[in-house]
Amino acid sequence: MLWTVLLALLVLLLLQTQLSVCLRELRAGGSSPPTFSSSSSPSSSSYNATQQRLPGAIIIGVRKGGTRALLEMLNLHPDVEVAKAEVHYFNVEEHYRRGLAWYRAQMPFTLPGQLTVEKTPGYFAAPQVPAHVWDMNPAVRLLLIVRDPAERLVSDYTQVLHNRLTRHKPYQTLEDLLLRKGRIDPGYKALQRSLYHQHLARWLEVFPLEQIHVVDGDALIRDPFPELRKAERFLDLPPRISPDNFYYNTTKGFYCLLSAGHDKCLDESKGRPHAPLSSQAFKKLCRYFRKPNKLFFEMVGRSFSWC
Ligand code: A3P
């Protein structure tokens, strides 16, 4: 009698396991899209339909332009999955040598029809990257988020300063690095990273402009939703991100994200107070960028209200 009961229990347990596996597979392979990408991330490769796929879109820069905010905001879309960490595949020779299988392995699992997005701001200014990206997929969509180049430079310096202070390393003031005998030093690396037209020119040797969507990073800070709507359109995604996905956090001084009852602000490395720079030096910087900015505006066919 006892054996019969035990056997019956065992059969029941087996049937239940089988049923839950079937249900999971049905859900993974089903035609209806998942609700929110953050909650739909499959954790196991045992799902038949889920795979790690190469990115269909890449946020290529610019460094300190708002690349993390853009990635996190795109991730609100149910048809988007993002690589959480910066991959640095196309710009770091050691990674590139590992090949596409390695790159793919850095990507999140996605369902068929979902778009994989990665961001590595270092791609924009690295000369070898456009051709490498083309070799991977000439149809890949590129997102470039730009910001007032003078503000970007100060933000860039602030990040480097922060890293040096944390590691108890010596540092120079921004003015020391930026000015030589009272004039802007064109050799300063952070200044060069703000010469958007130079870097974009290299991308345009390889990709048509229609394949590069320029996001206004200053507008994204002020009011993220309109920039996200434009990005959805560029990526051929159905409009799913709504103004309700954002709320202004007065403590942080920035918009934070809301999705399925969860809220999320970017970490404290985003939106930190900028290192000081005299208004005189800042004005010199603005004057210096006037011509490069104009060239950039001509390239992208639109202008931005930068200093
Ligand atoms: P600051 O720290 O200079 O303010 P990146 O992610 O490319 O490093 O860019 C960082 C910048 O993203 C920040 O620069 C910040 O201004 C900007 N940003 C845009 N939207 C933001 C948001 N919602 N929360 C925090 N920072 C945001």
Q: What Rg do the Cα atoms give?
A: 23 Å
Overall domain count: 1
CATH superfamily: P-loop containing nucleotide triphosphate hydrolases
Main sheet attributes: strand count, strand direction, barrel closure: 5 strands, parallel
Q: Which residue ranges are poorly predicted, with pLDDT under 50 across at least 5 consecutive positions?
A: 9-46
Remind me, CATH topology? Rossmann fold
Write the layout of secondary structure elements.
Blueprint: H1 2-29, E1 51-52, E2 57-61, H2 67-74, E3 80-82, H3 93-96, H4 100-105, E4 109-110, E5 115-119, H5 129-136, E6 141-146, H6 149-166, H7 174-178, E7 179-180, E8 183-184, H8 189-193, H9 196-204, E9 212-216, H10 217-222, H11 224-234, E10 246-249, E11 254-259, E12 262-264, H12 279-300
Parallel strand pairs: 2-5, 2-6, 3-5, 6-9
Antiparallel strand pairs: 1-4, 7-8, 10-11, 11-12
Helix pairs in contact: 9-12
Bound molecules: adenosine-3'-5'-diphosphate (A3P).
Residues 64-69, 121, 155, 220-221, 254-255, 266, 270-272 line the site of adenosine-3'-5'-diphosphate.
